[in-house]
Amino acid sequence: MNAGAxxxxxxxxxxxxxxxxxxxxxAPHPRATYADNREITLVAERLGLDFVMxxxxxxxxxxxxxxxxxxxxxxxxxxxxxxATERIALWTTVHTNLFxxxxxxxMLATLDQxxxxxxxxNLVVGAYEHEFSQMGQWRADFSHDDRYRYTEEWLxxxxxxxxxxxxxxxxxxxxxxxxxxRPHPARRPRVISAGRSPAGLRFQAAHCDGSFLTxxxxxxxxxxxxxxxxxxxxxxxxIRTYAMLTVVLGASxxxxxxxxxxxxxxxxxxxxxxxxxxxxxxxxxxxSMTAGDEAHEAFQTAVVVGGAESVTExxxxxxxxxxxxxxxxxxxxxxxxxPVFGExxxxxxxxxxxxxx
Length: 357
Fold this sequence. Notes:
The chain is α/β, with parallel strands linked by helices. It is built from 14 helices and 11 strands.
């Protein structure tokens, strides 16, 4: 791909958890298998997409669909995909509260070699209590801001281990004495994070190469994009911004809308409620939210719905009207939908940003 500073990036959020990103009994139900995720990644690479990313998830949300009850581990999945691919960038996910930075420094230095410099890491500050309390790894004494202070020190240790032959560090959370981690990565892996809290945006602006943003609408995404980029500029840095987007693509706008409504019809209210409880919402609020627009309740991200021309216009609006540098795409049925998107939508998106695969 001919990618200049203004090039838009288009990637895939891999379905490494069963059910993918739609919590519904009437939607396709991707399997949490390496074979499927490998095939999806190879299709994405063949179509000329820029990256794939896998999440890290240690406990599902139950419900009738057992949503994310089965998941692949992100680092091992990404390492295998690195061997299977040649060009596409590969972004893994690490929970900083589960992995010591010295362990991750070695793992990512290895992944840098396997991928020939194509790897990146999405850092997650774990916030779903039951995901970690089940293994005795939840710090009830940590506030939201404490978790980000912890992760800042975590990343400082990681980056020193990537560049220094010996690291001695006596900090608030970590103690290292003549800690060694060689070889160093030939190219610093790209560091990405998500979150819209003030602490999250400060962390991204000061330390990350990429930021995943969420908002209720496109004007909100524009505000978030401008905010994190302004914060980065205050640190003398630049940062690229992304959003997640589910694509319901049909033969026509009407057909796509019918499919969208059908997926919403079977939404898994119990799983959706459990997901919202994991965000820290009170039970009454989590349950009341699921009683609203059922068609949207099944989806975990913003959704674009329509035929190829309409989807192209909507995706372009997400990057052109907001200032975002790219989107990470989700499909109901990746192996069915992705080739159609690559043939009928992606070329127009590339042309609009002046890039070629």
